[in-house]
Model the fold of this input.
Amino acid sequence: MTVVQIARAPVGAFTRWRATRTPARRALSSGGLFLAVGTTILLGVGLVMILSASWVSAYISSGSSFVFFARQAVWVLIGLAAMMVTSHVDYRRWRALSYGLLALTIAGLVLVLIPGIGVRVGGSSRWLVLGPMRFQPSEMAKLALLLTGADLCVRKGRRLRTYKDVLVPYGIIAGIVGALVMAQPDLGTTIILGGITGAVLFVGGVRLRILSGFGLTGLGAGAMLAMSAGYRRARIASFADPFSDPLNAGYQAVQSQIALGSGGLFGVGLGAGRQKWLYVPNAHTDFIFSIIGEEVGLIGTFGVIALFVLVAYAGVRIAQRAPDAFGRIVAGGATAWIAGQAVINMGAVTGLMPITGVPLPLVSFGGSSLLFTLIAIGILLNIARQEPPGPVPLDPRS
Done:
């Protein structure tokens, strides 16, 4: 509609035209604002704590105290740009793009397993080299499983009533992706992929009886995988009592608890922590939460937890008010992904869960994890832009 046509049109026509404007230009809902605020603060906390937690190891390894901080800052800029783009792209377009993304993911997961192509670090082959940066296809797998699962659940609708309906094809797809990630090996990410799959099916309307059956099967498979390698068995054994072997299997857990305990209520001061002096392994990646506890204390850790609660609340609110079933499932699955990964990471750091080696979303050092987390948040923001006015409909599928 041109400007002249708008001027000549009756008031009712102008109102209808405004209602059909591109969703990308609509203001964020309250859920979207909460999500944007929580995400922004967590990114800021992450940059500050990565600089504090990594400067010792960075200086020893490269002669510069800022190398990890600078890399993460670049990834934050890239991730924010990707989030802005996805927040202005109609989330429904991802239905058609999801299968191409899944194909790229499977290709990447196969490539990392080929000697000479995949980069092997610490006994795991998880990375591909793309120019000056490393890339983890397993992080892209989270987004691919989320989007394809949401599309398949919408297509099947109320036909998701039997084990076969769930297994074919989404269960098979999730199994293939999980097996490729486990072959790296990466049990932590495999668990998160299983959680995303379960969340998609739950929000998609699969009966609890069927979900329980798949859940019990997944727990059994996870237990077998956890006991299939010596170092995993040692982690499980040290989880019960890490101080029984404080210099070997329980070392990481013990040092993490020392860091948390020495922080007290208010911490020893930002930058003044001692455990980052090569006592806590992976201080700026998987165990950055322990450095937060040491340097800014219990108050700081509760602040980080509160920010993740805010992000989770915003995601649930966006899912509840999504315009359609696809948006609802994507929002619910993305929220479960981010909140669940945060719980797993903080549970391992505090000794409430076994160590699985997953980063703290938006806070830990790691480009691939940050990038795809921010892309998922961008999609959530776009869903929030398209919330229908008024009360939430009883059946968002209508």
Notes: The two ends are 28 Å apart (CA to CA).
